[in-house]
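We modelled the chain as a single entity of 363 amino acids. Its sequence is:
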Amino acid sequence: MRRLGLKILDIYIIRKFIGTYFYAILLIVGIAVIFDIAEKMDDFVGKGAPLKAIVFDYYMNFIPYFANLFSSLFTFIAVIFFTSKMAYSTEIIAILSSGISFKRMLVPYFISAAIIAAFSFLLTSFVIPPANQVRIDFENAYVKRALKNTERNIHRQVRPGIFIYMQSYNTGGKIGYKFTMEKIVDGQLESKLISDFIKWNEETQKWTVNNYHIRNYSGKGEEIIQGEKIDTTIYLEPTDFSQRLNIVETMNMFELDDFIEEQQLQGADNVDFYLIEKYSRMAYPFSTFILTLIGVSLSSRKVRGGIGLHIGLGLALSFSYILFMRFSTMFSVGGSIPPIVAVWIPNVLYAIIALVLYRLAPK
């Protein structure tokens, strides 16, 4: 540690910070698991979920997901709790009286925050997604109802210049009714396929087009081809119609980028939701630094009410941050503001609050 330029005080604060952080996670996640079991017990029993699957497929993957989801909150609670104890045992006064500035005292706090933020980013981007796949598969099998597609008049651009239309889609039968596929080149309609219905063929992994007409247009005129059945590729799979929005939670950063690009190409309606997920994976870890600064600035001073008042103020600020984040992303999904702005607005606002509180903190 000496080689890294860290002093005994730095090591002391880092140990306190990281130790209290993991203690808060164990405590709150334990409570969350108990409530979740109570809420879902009827589903587990009613659908015959095996005990092994409940423990290893669901809760062993639920715990890291939940812990990382509220990582910033746990960070804030940890900072408030152990810094308040230091303040009320006059340790903060002793540190500042020894010639160490408040700014220098923040160094081990930010080192700890950097460790937690990097850990959170790696978990969110690369470790938790495959674990989420197992958890979500379990939920789909034993908790949630089977997803039914209720879309009507489905329009998609599946490739540049290739557009498909379905009047409706049956998720269970994997059948699309009143199907049309158009190919447009340089603004001109080149071909158009019209069919009564299409059905997914599990053996060929292609769509079977039934009772079809194909119209090909060229400079020589119009060519009409018709028949009863033909297998074709329309650059879509049944999962594209039956996936839930939380499917993005199962993708690492590279897969998520590819998925968003594909959805933008297809003209999907939910692209903003996927972009919010992408930007949140960077914004949430960064909030660790902001909430750490707020926590230290608030709890380093003795006030009437003791540690309880510090924790109360800290929880109020942290929950207001989470609530504001939800509101801003909701407006983004509604199309009011760009996703990247919606995700980063809370960080910018609370960074300003953090700087104000830092100015008011005892020096």
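As a brief sanity check on the tokenised model: The first helix runs from residue 8 to 46. Residues 8-144+271-360 form one domain.
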